[in-house]
Amino acid sequence: MEDKRTHELPELYAPNGGEGPYSYSQNSNYQRGVVEAAKEKINEAIANHFDIKTFCGSKNPVCMVDLGCSTGANTFITVQNIVEAIKLKYKSKGVNAQIPDFLVFFNDNVSHDFNTLFRSLPPNRQYFAAGVPGSFHDCLFPKESLHLIHSSCALNWLSNYRIKGLVEEAKVDSFNVPAYYIPRKKLMALIERNGNFSIKKMEVLNNQKKHHILQSASLRSLYLRAVLEGIIEKHFGNEILDELFNRFTHKVEGSSFFLNPETDKLIILFVLLERNN
Asked: Basic and acidic residues: which segments have biased composition (predicted)?
């Protein structure tokens, strides 16, 4: 019997666009640290698992997508790292002349600031670029049209914050955005149960810069505001935003817990999947 539960997702909001003080592009150094920490592992994955024989004698480009690309330079750094790693593999095999073209799709929610993204495209990029708006939980591409898929820091989290005295308590109680940190073993079990992918590698990614990047309360507040402002504004209105994040900043400043690296138990997983035939 068909499951009658809907698969519709709540309305999704992209991080803050533009290049202002609360924008994602100005407050995403933490995510850049993740990109930099993953570079060596991505290079290794491409060297060991990317099959260049697929493109021998073919004029088709290598098609890849960055799911949840957001704005700013991080997505361009990631894509360039991948392109360079693939080119390096061709050179190591002595087939420089056969290096294909690269077509990169940049994906994010429909509310994403694609204008800022494409205005920021590197002028000397080594790939063709296209935007694909929409949730990656939906079907965005034809079957077997992608050769490589990348996603980093795209499944974000949110903790409820009681805005005492600013809004009605009922609104706070109804503000329920799921936050879920999946254990590594459970993630492995879900991938295996899905059956469409094989796990080639799964390990903790060491973002050594994260405590340096978010070492002050104000930086942490800006980091969260860049990502979550749209969701909060939709539910509570924009009148509370400045006061909310000011209070959050003071809350962090008054706590020895938040800024102590020893209390940070959050981990980032590097997961390499290969689609099963």
From this structure: 1-10
